[in-house]
Amino acid sequence: MERKEPNQLEDTVKSLLEKRSMSLRTLGKQTGIDVASLSRMISGKQKANPDYLQRMAVELGVSSDELFRAAGFDVGGTIQRGSVNDSFDFLRELLNGQRFSKQEIEVELAKYEDYARTDEGTNLIVEKFPEKRQQVPGTGPFIEQLDDMYNSFLKSSSDEERCILGSGLLYFVLSTDIIPDYIFPIGYVDDALAIQLAWSRFSLIRRDLGEKE
């Protein structure tokens, strides 16, 4: 994941503050961020904190994407149907080195596979997925892959396929995310990676079946 140069966060924040006749000190109070830390971050002296950017976006009345891009994050590439490993590299950078691993998501998916085999797990997916799906704003590859997974889950008659697809859908539906969904837009990144991992396994199974036929 590449950052754009130069960092435009300072100009963007100053412009937004001016439009709202708001001072940096007021923004600090409203976001609960120390004004000195805020000043260092927007001037580029301190690495941009995703949580701070999200809080600032709320108070400044703009989408968090705008501040993420201004800070140098290539937000447009966060949730794509690309390499899973590339996505994890992006996530580590976005979270400023916070501990996060592919294995953590794989452990959760493995737990959900057994649950997806049960009638209770299946009913939960069918009942809760449409509602949770509506909470995800925007469009794009993540949404397309999410819908493809749900439709494939409903159509598949294979127990193995359904438990793999179901594990990804249960990760999305249940509120046990490694990154909370309310931290938008990055709150859905681990959901997207879980979907990618499950979909990759599903695709391998379908490919293997095709080669045997």
Automatic annotation (TrEMBL):
Keywords: Membrane, Transmembrane, Transmembrane helix. Residues 13-67 form the HTH cro/C1-type domain. It holds the Pfam family HTH_3. One of its GO terms (molecular function) is DNA binding. It is a multi-pass membrane protein. PROSITE patterns: HTH_CROC1. The keyword Ribosomal protein does not apply. GO terms for cellular component: endomembrane system. Its main location: membrane. InterPro entries: Cro/C1-type_HTH (IPR001387), DUF1232 (IPR010652), Lambda_DNA-bd_dom_sf (IPR010982). It is found in: Endomembrane system. This is HTH cro/C1-type domain-containing protein. It comes from Alicyclobacillus ferrooxydans. The lineage of its organism: Bacteria, Bacillati, Bacillota, Bacilli, Bacillales.
